[in-house]
Amino acid sequence: MSKNTDVVVVGGGYAGVMAANRLTQRDDVTVTVINPRSVFVPRLRLHQLVGGTHDAVVDYKDVLAERVRLVVDSVTRIDAAGRKVTTGEGDTIAYDYLIYAVGSGTAGHRVPGAAEFAYPVATLEAAQRLRTVLFDTAMTAPVTVIGGGPTGIETAAELAEQGRNVTLICGGALGPYLHPKARRTARKYFAGLGATVIEGSDAAVTAVARDAVELGDGRTLASEVTIWTAGFDVPDLAARSGLRTDAAGRLLTDETLTSVDDARIVAAGDSSAPSDLPFRMSAYTAYCLGAHAADTLLRRIAGEQPTPIDLAFPAMCLSFGRDAGIYQLGHKDETATRLYFSGFAGKKLKEFACEAGIKHLATEARKPGSHHWFKDGKHRPQLLRARRDNTVAPVA
Ligand SMILES: Cc1cc2nc3c(=O)[nH]c(=O)nc-3n(C[C@H](O)[C@H](O)[C@H](O)COP(=O)(O)OP(=O)(O)OC[C@H]3O[C@@H](n4cnc5c(N)ncnc54)[C@H](O)[C@@H]3O)c2cc1C
Prior knowledge:
The protein is of the alpha/beta class and 396 residues long. Helix content is 29%, strand content 26%. Strands 5-2-1-9-21 form a five-stranded parallel beta sheet, with helices on one face. Strands 11-18-12-13-14 form a five-stranded parallel beta sheet. Strands 6-7-8 form a three-stranded antiparallel beta sheet.
């Protein structure tokens, strides 16, 4: 009889849940997910939680395979040499293999006053707190959203749609990933919602006070509630555990997603940095990487050679409140095409993408091994080669 293999998955987000479900293909693998909450958080709904249109939680029984054990706790240290983790409750859990999928959270506040006076949105608890603050704030009060990426855009639009007095300060371009045509549409949506959009790096926020924000161009804007959405940071668990990370703290892996320090540790999602060339942080990327991380372990357990990750990022979608959206199609090299869907079609596609994330996890729980994703095959190997040769990649 073959020996049972224990796999511990640290983090029960998109990457961790997908990986855990996929591992149940083998009856002789025991899977334990360790996560600080007893509910799954679809983080791409957190701006809706802030706006009061979604509670942004899903029962684990709807997305996690029955055979997977859930431990509600936080890992405080990974002991790679001893093959065990220590948790916040003081427990020790041993493993044969570990999947590192701790995701991301609020970016460190990089301007004076932001840590004290700006509210983040990137975690369930942060979004719940902000919701309470807004509940106690007059509808006419000025609300400033800092960050022109997807989280800032969606949060600003959600609040403007409710009739709040919103200013979005991008710190650069509005939706840097968007094609210029789609960006014009985004500006039109904000104008229709009555929100002010300030673009350009000259007008980036330089300081946050209790009731105002200061901009690089010398302006001071009144702001009763200031919301910080500029970037995500990752937990420092890998670095604290003595594992090598990229400059942002993501676990460094090879192209099979295996830690460069330890063949028994595999990483996926926002907290992974394959070849020091991390994929875009997104739910779609996270669950595809989660599936590949599981495949790497399953191959290793079977005595086979794991394969390199091959993943294309086909599109990005944004909601502009509950009535409009933009679904921006992308080239395989992660640049935007001229093609995008807006208005009702964009909104429907955005909603479909949010639902699809949960459905893919649920399907994998029932039929482990069934998830497939868009392959690239070309651009990533080209980028890796170019970096190795220290030349500029020819982009097709
Ligand atoms: C407001 C908002 C809107 C977004 N919109 C989109 C969108 O439209 N499309 C899109 O693709 N992406 C979107 N994203 C990004 C997307 O949600 C993330 O990229 C995705 O959640 C990453 O998945 P993950 O599994 O890597 O990490 P997460 O979903 O962050 O899951 C990681 C899990 O690990 C847990 N964890 C952390 N530390 C520990 C520890 N020490 N021990 C145990 N568990 C731990 C965390 O609590 C969490 O449950 C959005 C994010 C936000 C905040």
